[in-house]
Specification:
This is Mutator-like transposase domain-containing protein. Helix content is 39%, strand content 19%. By secondary structure, it is α+β, with helices and mostly antiparallel strands. The strands form 3 sheets. Strands 1-2-3 form a 3-stranded antiparallel β-sheet. A 3-stranded antiparallel β-sheet has the order 6-7-8. The chain is extended, with a radius of gyration of 31 Å. The protein has 8 helices and 8 strands; from the N terminus they run αααβββββαααβββαα.
Length: 257
């Protein structure tokens, strides 16, 4: 078999090849850490007003097997007889646990109540909306998991309204606190208290230029916190319904009002 001669490179050719330079930091940072703006915002966030209850949590259990095992281990403190467990009064994901013995029946709520509604219903709506899932998705999830029948439309709409009111109140409170902090930092930097230096940031519902929903925020220069927010929508469900039910002239008159 014919062999081919090996190609050898001279030392001058190897040394003449440029090497990749190592990164030793940005000289314009003046010793600051090479962190993103978002990381700085998160680092400056405080949790002074956030109350955490470590004992309050949820678990998914299978009702029949768990409470059947419990009924074999516990007895009534009064009649000294075995206790049986059942469920009733389903409202969304919440229900009542019915304890029965010779003394009678007693009901226990499956979770805490907010006025007359179960807290778990508000929680699942809030979490699912963060994930981009609405009522239909919640009901499909509950059906596939055999958790419950899901949420009725009126219940879901009321919960969304409660969440909107609570979120709006909390946002206004946080922004007010951020504005006061920005004023103090302006004074410390020898600037007028009410003349803010800000930067803007925006986002939209989906990628590309076809999204009908967008949000814009104003961020304080010194505090790095959001001081105002504005949501814009290019879609109106009421207008869509009216446009399908009215003719052009009637729709223009309705829109003008």
């Amino acid at each position: 078999m014919q062999s081919y001669p090996k190609v050898t490179k001279s030392s001058s050719e190897r040394t003449g090849k440029s090497r990749k330079r190592k990164f030793h930091g940005n000289q314009f940072l003046n010793g600051e850490a090479n962190t993103s703006r978002s990381e700085k915002k998160l680092a400056s966030a405080t949790t002074d007003d956030v109350i955490i209850y470590p004992s309050h949590c949820y678990r998914i259990i299978e009702f029949v097997s768990v409470f059947l095992s419990i009924s074999e281990l516990v007895i009534c403190n009064s009649c000294k007889q075995r206790i049986t467990f059942a469920e009733s009064g389903h409202r969304g994901l919440g229900f009542k646990i019915v304890l029965s013995c010779k003394c009678g029946k007693r009901e226990i709520q499956s979770g805490p109540l907010i006025h007359t509604g179960y807290e778990i219903n508000r929680r699942i709506v809030f979490v699912m909306r963060l994930l981009g899932v609405a009522r239909e998705g919640i009901n499909i999830f509950c059906g596939l998991m055999d958790i419950s029948q899901g949420l009725a439309k009126t219940t879901y709409d009321q919960i969304v309204q409660h969440l909107y009111t609570a979120s709006k109140t909390m946002f206004e409170s946080v922004c007010k606190k951020a504005v006061e902090e920005e004023k103090e930092l302006n004074i410390q930097n020898e600037r007028p208290a009410d003349r803010f230096k800000v930067s803007g940031d925006g986002s939209w519902k989906k990628r590309g230029y076809t999204s009908l929903y967008g949000v814009t925020t104003l961020i304080g220069y010194y505090s790095g916190k959001v001081i105002d927010l504005n949501v814009k929508s290019g879609y109106c469900h009421t207008c869509t319904i009216k446009k399908n039910t009215l003719n052009d002239d009637e729709f223009e008159d309705w829109l003008a009002k």
